[in-house]
């Protein structure tokens, strides 16, 4: 019996993807990585997935897990060699349990983030992870990349939102860690091994996720600023005045906003369009009558009075607030329309953000690497995560000689500067295949040895998502 026949026996006819439907799954979202696969398999449940993993282990075949294929570092795209199985979790969409008394929901890995948000809302709860790709990204991928998003400031990233996991190991064994416990001091926290591991240690098949009280009141503001320094000052004020009600604090450069307004017809600047920086701030509370609007107006009013803020717009209703969030969420799509981005997902101590960005842009300019390009900045400044982007218009990039070398030189300056300012080269996008060499450059030998030891313990044959992370 050949491989396809064996796989067919495990997953049935619906579990194999035909050649006509394969191409979107073999190319990453931005079209930068293209691969091939022996077969694309879509198991319907954990038992089928375990059967596929046992079959691959017996034949020494590598496995590339894939969620919604919305990642930005090529972590879910197989290599061009075509010697691996691409394992899609798209059919594993069962909601196993909703426990409102424990404030948890147990879902399979193929559920989209938006489905989970909607289900939580239907039982008067909140699942707070929020991403631009939430309509198509899958929770298994969110877990495997330790996704962040716009509400990390208040709720934390996926590491903070997961209570338990079910994982199929490389040899096909199933680890059932689906426990809805907030305290379990019985040794190593096994789930944390797989959160952020990018599918290199096993396949996440289900998760117990935390739920929170539904948010019944919000206050949103769009604030114009003269500098990134002013954003850091205003963040401190908002934290002091608003406490846990401060949910989002999103910073965007004028260069980034101008591209959004140029490329996306249903967006417009809420203010006069001249300030170098803008902030999108949101407060939220589970109480209907929380005085959020007054609280936000007081903070911003004081900032306007002393010159920390230049101008501000506070939406009068949910439709206007949604329009502001649309500007923030459409950034990636606008950039794809405009040109080719050399994108970096750095994390910094909050106090170091202004100095690092200024130093990075100065070094890029002095090196002659950004002629004809623009430097864009957008990020979750409240948790120190800034997306530093060098974007070339399509016609300019087409004339660049040795594009890979240019992108690599830009990346070296961005990442070197971030590390010099006490930061990290990846805050939420992960390593994938895009940054594997950089990880080995910036991580210490001790850290790499520990990571390799964990990898060898769980995947000694190195069959899980080869060419990614390590």
Automatic annotation (TrEMBL):
<dbReference type="InterPro" id="IPR051264">
    <property type="entry name" value="FAD-oxidored/transferase_4"/>
</dbReference>
<dbReference type="InterPro" id="IPR016164">
    <property type="entry name" value="FAD-linked_Oxase-like_C"/>
</dbReference>
<dbReference type="Pfam" id="PF02913">
    <property type="entry name" value="FAD-oxidase_C"/>
</dbReference>
<dbReference type="InterPro" id="IPR004113">
    <property type="entry name" value="FAD-bd_oxidored_4_C"/>
</dbReference>
<comment type="similarity">
    <text>Belongs to the FAD-binding oxidoreductase/transferase type 4 family.</text>
</comment>
<dbReference type="InterPro" id="IPR016169">
    <property type="entry name" value="FAD-bd_PCMH_sub2"/>
</dbReference>
<dbReference type="InterPro" id="IPR016166">
    <property type="entry name" value="FAD-bd_PCMH"/>
</dbReference>
<dbReference type="InterPro" id="IPR016167">
    <property type="entry name" value="FAD-bd_PCMH_sub1"/>
</dbReference>
<keyword id="KW-0274">FAD</keyword>
<dbReference type="Pfam" id="PF01565">
    <property type="entry name" value="FAD_binding_4"/>
</dbReference>
<dbReference type="InterPro" id="IPR006094">
    <property type="entry name" value="Oxid_FAD_bind_N"/>
</dbReference>
<feature type="domain" description="FAD-binding PCMH-type">
    <location>
        <begin position="33"/>
        <end position="214"/>
    </location>
</feature>
<dbReference type="GO" id="GO:0016491">
    <property type="term" value="F:oxidoreductase activity"/>
</dbReference>
<dbReference type="InterPro" id="IPR036318">
    <property type="entry name" value="FAD-bd_PCMH-like_sf"/>
</dbReference>
<keyword id="KW-0560">Oxidoreductase</keyword>
<dbReference type="InterPro" id="IPR016171">
    <property type="entry name" value="Vanillyl_alc_oxidase_C-sub2"/>
</dbReference>
<keyword id="KW-0285">Flavoprotein</keyword>
<dbReference type="GO" id="GO:0071949">
    <property type="term" value="F:FAD binding"/>
</dbReference>
<protein>
    <submittedName>
        <fullName>FAD/FMN-containing dehydrogenase</fullName>
    </submittedName>
</protein>
<dbReference type="GO" id="GO:0022904">
    <property type="term" value="P:respiratory electron transport chain"/>
</dbReference>
């Amino acid at each position: 019996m050949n491989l396809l026949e064996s796989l067919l026996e495990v997953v049935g006819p619906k579990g194999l993807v035909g050649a006509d439907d394969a191409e979107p799954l073999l190319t990453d979202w931005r079209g930068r990585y293209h691969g091939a696969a022996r077969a694309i398999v879509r198991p319907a449940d954990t038992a089928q997935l375990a059967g596929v993993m046992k079959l691959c282990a017996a034949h020494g075949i590598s496995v590339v897990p894939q969620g919604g294929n919305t990642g930005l570092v090529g972590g879910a795209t197989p290599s061009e060699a075509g010697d691996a199985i691409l394992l899609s979790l798209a059919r594993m969409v069962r909601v196993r349990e909703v426990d409102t008394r424990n404030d948890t929901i147990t879902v399979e890995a193929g559920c989209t983030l938006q489905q989970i948000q909607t289900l939580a809302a239907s039982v008067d709860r909140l699942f707070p992870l929020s991403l631009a790709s939430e309509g198509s990204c899958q929770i298994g991928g969110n877990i495997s990349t330790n996704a962040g998003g716009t509400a990390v400031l208040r709720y934390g990233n996926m590491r903070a939102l997961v209570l338990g996991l079910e994982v199929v190991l490389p040899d096909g064994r199933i680890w059932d860690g689906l426990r809805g416990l907030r305290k379990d001091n019985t040794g190593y926290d096994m789930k944390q091994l797989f959160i952020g591991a990018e599918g290199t240690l096993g396949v996440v098949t289900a998760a117990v996720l935390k739920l929170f009280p539904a948010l019944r009141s919000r206050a949103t503001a769009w604030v114009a600023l003269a500098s990134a320094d002013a954003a850091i000052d205003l963040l401190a004020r908002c934290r002091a005045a608003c406490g846990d009600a401060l949910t989002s604090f999103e910073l965007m450069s004028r260069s980034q906003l101008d591209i959004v307004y140029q490329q996306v017809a249903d967006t417009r600047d809420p203010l006069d369009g001249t300030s170098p920086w803008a902030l999108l701030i949101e407060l939220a509370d589970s109480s209907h009558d929380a005085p959020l609007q007054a609280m936000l107006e007081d903070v911003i009013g004081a900032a306007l009075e002393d010159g920390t803020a230049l101008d501000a717009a506070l939406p009068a209703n949910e439709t206007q607030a949604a329009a502001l969030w649309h500007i923030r969420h459409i950034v990636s799509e606008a950039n794809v329309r405009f040109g080719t981005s050399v994108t970096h997902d750095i994390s910094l101590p909050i106090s170091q953000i202004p100095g690092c960005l200024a130093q990075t842009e100065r070094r890029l300019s002095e090196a002659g690497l950004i002629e004809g390009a623009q430097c864009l900045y957008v990020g979750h400044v409240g948790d120190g995560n800034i997306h530093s982007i060098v974007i070339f218009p399509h016609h300019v990039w087409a004339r660049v000689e040795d594009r890979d070398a240019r992108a690599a030189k830009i990346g070296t300056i961005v990442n070197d500067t971030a590390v010099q300012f006490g930061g990290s080269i990846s805050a939420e996008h992960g390593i994938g295949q895009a940054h594997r060499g950089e990880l080995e450059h910036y991580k210490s030998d001790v850290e790499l040895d520990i990571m390799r030891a964990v990898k060898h313990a769980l995947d000694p044959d190195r069959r899980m998502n080869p060419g990614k992370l390590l």
